Amino acid sequence: MSPATIWGERWLNCEQPIARKYMEVACNKQSLVVLAADKNNMGELNDLIEEVGDYISALKTHVDLIDDWSKDAWNEFITKAKKKDLLIFEDRKHGDIGKIAKKQMGGVYNSREWADLITAHLISGSSVLDGIHEAWSEVNRKGGVLVLAQMSSEGNLLELPGYTDSVIEIGKSHSTCFGFIGNGSRPNELSELRKKVGQGKMIWTPGVNINVNEAVLGQRYGDPKEAILSGSDAIIVGSGIYNAENPKDAAKKYADISWNALLQRCE
Ligand code: 5BU
Question: Whose CA is nearest to atom 12 of ligand 1?
């Protein structure tokens, strides 16, 4: 199915190449699944991407989780993921002032060179977005930031009155903001977020698992279909896939649920 048929105006009016790429890949793979590849070593990461790469549309990493990280091994892994047509999304949760966020895009991990998308809190103000933008520009790349408007964890302080609204206001008008992280575990919060964000930016949602009781340490889970129907454009799923008895089957299942929910939302 063509992106224009599925995404309609959002595809036609979209000016961000990365958002277009995501919408296109999602249609090709019929999946709105972003894999949270929270593995601790390169071997397991490589195996996981081989196994489920065809059923997901983006790969979310936490580069600092890896025990045996090396530049070469990482570059090889990223090359493999790109061959599977995946956007690379580092969940860095930047939050420092602009000039430091810019430097933090370099350093040992040098995420400006390989990450297409990155997360940031706006706790320090909008300069974090400018800093990240400049870091990408210096290596002739243009990426997108997913700004944390909500979180999935219980008791998070983004829920304090006014915070989410301020974040939406800044993010909506900033060209480096690709979209927002919404709380996948609470469909009503997601619907509210979508209303406020409008159609111009993406909403991607962690806190999604078919087995909502599997949440530990303050994580909260909601149903993947509900998340999409409430306005999410991508479900971020980690343990629901990599801890499944058969990760490939689990990835296919999440892909089918997400895609069918999107079709239903388009009706
Ligand atoms: P899980 O295994 O599906 O619970 O993993 C969720 C992933 O999403 C994990 O990598 C978290 O760092 C990430 N996450 C989250 O769970 N909740 C949030 O609000 C944000 C990110 Br932001």
Answer: 91
Domains of the chain from N-terminus onward? 3-265 (3.20.20.70)
Question: Is residue 201 among the annotated active site residues?
Answer: no
Residue 250: φ, ψ to 5°? -65, -45
Phi, psi of 54 (to 5 degrees): -75, -10
Distance from residue 212's CA to the centre of ligand 1 (Å): 14
pLDDT exceeds cutoff 90 at 214:
no
Which of 91, 148, 237 for a ligand 1 pocket mutation test, highest count of atoms within 8 Å of Cβ? 91
Question: CB–CB of 27/6 below 8 Å?
Answer: yes
pLDDT band at 146 (very low <50, low <70, confident <90, very high): very high
Query: What pLDDT does 212 receive?
Result: 83
Question: For the chain, what's the residue count?
Answer: 267
Burial (Cβ within 10 Å: 0-12, 13-18, ≥19) of residue 84: middle
CA-to-CA distance for 184 and 208, rounded, in angstroms? 6
What pLDDT, on the 0 to 100 scale, is given for residue 15? 85
Tell me, in angstroms, the distance from the centre of ligand 1 to residue 92's CA: 11
Residues 59-94: tens digit of each pLDDT = 999 999 999 999 999 999 999 999 999 999 999 999
End-to-end CA distance of the chain: 14
